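User: I'm curious whether this sequence folds into something compact or stays loose and floppy. Could you predict its structure so I can see for myself?
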Amino acid sequence: MGRILLLAAGVVVAFLLLGSVIGFVVGALKWALIIGIVVLAVMALGRILRSTGS
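Assistant: Here's the prediction. I'll summarize afterward.
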């Protein structure tokens, strides 16, 4: 009985840790995507302004 409860507690803790890790990874990917879009927009704007200025 004690082993079953210990195993169940271990599974619950593992799912909690897995959820927080997945949340962190998804948040990091979201910020990487936002930063990438901003960088691409700035590069495209720079090319447009440079080509019209010449």
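Summary: Residues 2-53 form the longest helix (52 residues). The mean pLDDT is 93.
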